[in-house]
Write a structure and sequence with these properties.
Elements lengths: L2 H18 L4 H12 L8 H12 L2 H18 L5 H9 L6 H5 L1 H4 L5 H12 L3 H7 L9 H18 L13 H7 L2
Helix pairs in contact: 1-4, 2-3, 2-10, 3-10, 8-10, 9-10
């Protein structure tokens, strides 16, 4: 199987799993918008959606999405030991593996992703809060963190694309940088 075909299958599966769990790109984009609207003039929900799609095109992101959601599904179907199923179904607070898995998503656009993720993990905006509170027969241990990580990464991608007033607007040669730092 070619790498391009494998990439296409991974991306398709990631989107399918999100959809099966009731999550849309718009749901994630709304969180991105909430994170970035006060920093980015004229930000649109469509631009946020474009950035969510860009994050989902990355293979390491697709791998994390697929792995995490399939673990949630396996827990619902009792495919693990009773102890692990119980931890996952209750989203045990000290379990922590769900947060570790999504670091591969959080960090794809730099360290700002970590602060964005910490914020959404704590405040649980939008669909994250709805999934976090729906702990009946569904296991949402990984999906809520996956959504938060996708939103954090997309928000970070937007932040990195925004010029700041103090950014240098011209390319400096190494000689100029050295001279200015003496």
């Amino acid at each position: 199987m070619s790498n391009l075909l494998k990439q296409t299958l991974l991306e398709k599966r990631a989107y399918e799993l999100l959809e099966q769990r009731g999550v849309t790109v718009r749901d994630i984009a709304e969180i991105v918008y909430e994170l970035q609207a006060k920093y980015v003039p004229d930000l649109t929900i469509e631009h946020c959606e474009e950035n969510v799609h860009a994050v989902l095109r990355k293979r390491e992101v697709q791998n994390a999405v697929i792995t995490g959601i399939e673990i949630d599904i396996a827990a619902e179907q009792n495919h693990f030991s009773p102890l692990l199923c119980d931890l996952l179904m209750r989203d045990e607070g000290l379990y922590g593996i769900d947060e570790i898995l999504v670091l591969s998503i959080v960090n794809v656009y730099g360290s700002i992703g970590m602060t964005n993720f910490g914020f959404v993990d704590k405040t649980k905006p939008g669909i994250i809060g709805r999934l976090d509170s729906a702990k009946d027969s569904h296991c949402n241990t990984f999906i809520d963190d996956i959504i938060g990580a996708l939103a954090a990464a997309a928000a970070s991608r937007i932040a990195h694309s925004q010029p700041k007033d103090d950014d240098v607007n011209e390319v400096l040669s190494p000689k100029t940088v050295y001279k200015n730092n003496k």
